[in-house]
Structures are given as structure tokens and as C-alpha cells.
Specification:
globular; about 300 residues; 10 helices; five-stranded mixed beta sheet; 12 strands; alpha/beta; about 40% helix
């Protein structure tokens, strides 16, 4: 049995993986009404409170190995204090159970969880493109097999400013929603049938989203319907991601593409690529922050 831990900026996550089936336990961190995020000190405190409660909901006997995310990305200087909570818990758990310990990044966990959910774990042995779309990341990544780290991740395109998840959350908060706003904004956007003609702001494969926030403020001041504002923001993100992928295919050809990160659970984004047979999406519970990927990482390292 393989145990996974992930303490991201907004979710405390634990998972068990037996080589076939994943069992997950999660708890969203609390963000006060009207606020757009958490200080790291507050995230660390909430993870410290949440972890023992979630551990009590899982069977911890027979643990062969523990996987944990200790950095946001596999990159020099990538660091967030909230991941220390999970790392410390993993150290204690592995020593207490006599289990092997494997450390990885939050981003690696996202990709592995998405591949598992899409039934394409075989892609860890093949070159492919992964989109990681979340509150802190709007990136396209070239993923290749790696003996030491299971997968090697190379950044090949990104947003130069605002991230897709940030745009969604800021829009949602301006519309009076509770943070994080992805699910609520998605549902609201489905009530609009307005068609927006959008030309994404692109520079090569990279995009810019900062101008969209100003447009949202103008739409609110103009009295546009909330559902139309939501539709505009989601449509803009979908058009932007589509433009990024088209540009990347000009460079890398028709590689398989996997989408991960909370924004990837958006219904309109999935519909955008529904006819593209080389594009795969994780189920929502494996798109959002989760520990499934770190448990799978421990399994793959052990094997």
C-alpha cells in the first residue's frame, strides 16, 4: 500500500493507492469571505490542524512507501512553507511505519494524478505535453521519462502575468462568491448564451491575462449580467489555452496532451477540446489539489 501527502496552499490532502485504486481524504483550507487567498502562516496552521483529523480516517497499516510533495515545482528556488507541514508528517509516518519515503513536487503530483484518472499512466514512459492550470500556475510543460524522478518537466509556455485560476477567483470575489470560486463561476457561466468574439493576447506560445481583469471591472461598472461576465472570463481562458496549444503543436507536433490543475475541471474548457482525441482530462477530484499523485509517485518509485 502506498500513502500520499500534499499540503498545498488551499487543500490538505491524503491518499492511499494499492496499485489500482485510490482512496482520498481532503479538506479545503478556510478563506474569509471577500478575501482572495491565505497567508502562508495561516495555511501552515490549518494544515497542522487538519492532518491528524484526516489521518484518523485512513487505515495506516501495511504501508510500503510514502510519497509527499515538498516543493511547488521541480525547480531551483521553488519553495512554499505550507509544504513543510506535509514533509514533516511524511517523515514521522515513514519512520513510524518503517516505510520508504519519496519526495517530489506538487506539480509532479498533479500530472501523475491526471494521467491516472485519464487511464494514461503509460504516458510516464512517453513524451507528452501537460497543461497545469491553477491559481498559481498557467503553464504548458514538456514531460519526458526520467529514471530518477519518474518524469522530467520542462516549461515550454506560460502566462507572463495573471494566472488562469487567479483571474477566475478575482472575478468570482468581485461577483460576491466565496474563494475559491472555480466551481461557482463555472456553474454561473453556463446560464449565459452570449457569444464573445475574443482574440487572446499572445506572444509566441506565451499568453497574457492581466487585461481581462480590467475588462471584468468595466463590465461590472457597466451593469452587465453576472452570468455574462462569468461566461466572458471562462471563454477568454479557453480561447487562450487553445491558442497556446496550437502554437506548441507547431513546434512539437501531435504529442498527447494531459490537463491538470483546478482550472482543468472547468466544463467549457473540456468542451473546447472534446473532439481532439489526443487531449485528456482528469476527473474533477483528480484535477483539483490532491495527494493521489504523490501516492502514485511512491508506487512508481518503488516499482
Amino acid at each position: 500500500m502506498y500513502f500520499g501527502i500534499d499540503t498545498s496552499n488551499y487543500t490538505t490532502s491524503l491518499a492511499l493507492f494499492d496499485g489500482e485504486r485510490v482512496i482520498q481524504k481532503k479538506k479545503l483550507l478556510c478563506v474569509k469571505q471577500g478575501e482572495r487567498g491565505l497567508r502562508q502562516s495561516e495555511a501552515v496552521f490549518q494544515h497542522t490542524v487538519n492532518l491528524p483529523k484526516l489521518l484518523g480516517e485512513l487505515e495506516l497499516s501495511g504501508i510500503d512507501a510514502v510519497g509527499v510533495s515538498v516543493t511547488p515545482r521541480n525547480a531551483e528556488g521553488s519553495y512554499m512553507p505550507c509544504f513543510l507541514v506535509g514533509e514533516n508528517a511524511a517523515e514521522f509516518l515513514s519512520k513510524g511505519c518503517g516505510a520508504r519515503l519519496y519526495k517530489t513536487s506538487h506539480q509532479t503530483g498533479h500530472i501523475l494524478a491526471a494521467l491516472y484518472s485519464a487511464n494514461r499512466l503509460d504516458l510516464v514512459n512517453k513524451k507528452h505535453i501537460a497543461f497545469h492550470l491553477s491559481g498559481g500556475t498557467t503553464e504548458a510543460l514538456l514531460v519526458t521519462p526520467d529514471k530518477e524522478n519518474i518524469i522530467n518537466i520542462e516549461l515550454i509556455a506560460q502566462s507572463s502575468d495573471l494566472k488562469a485560476g487567479q483571474l477566475i477567483d478575482r472575478t468570482g470575489v468581485m461577483l460576491g462568491m466565496n474563494f475559491p470560486c472555480g466551481k461557482e463561476l463555472d456553474l454561473l457561466s453556463q446560464k449565459s448564451d452570449k457569444d464573445f468574439k475574443i482574440k487572446p493576447s499572445m506572444k509566441g506560445e506565451n499568453c497574457s491575462l492581466s487585461g481581462v481583469e480590467n475588462k471584468v471591472k468595466a463590465m461590472i461598472e457597466n451593469g452587465d449580467a453576472d452570468e455574462d461576465i462569468a461566461r466572458f472570463v471562462i471563454t477568454y481562458i479557453c480561447k487562450t489555452v487553445s491558442s497556446m496549444l496550437n502554437a506548441l503543436r507547431g513546434k512539437y507536433g501531435g504529442l498527447p496532451v494531459i490537463f491538470s490543475g483546478g482550472v482543468s475541471s472547468n466544463s467549457l474548457l473540456k468542451k473546447t477540446f472534446e473532439n481532439d482525441k489526443s487531449v485528456y482530462f482528469a476527473k474533477p477530484e483528480f484535477s483539483l489539489d490532491n495527494a493521489a499523485g504523490t501516492a502514485i509517485y511512491a508506487y512508481l518509485k518503488d516499482k
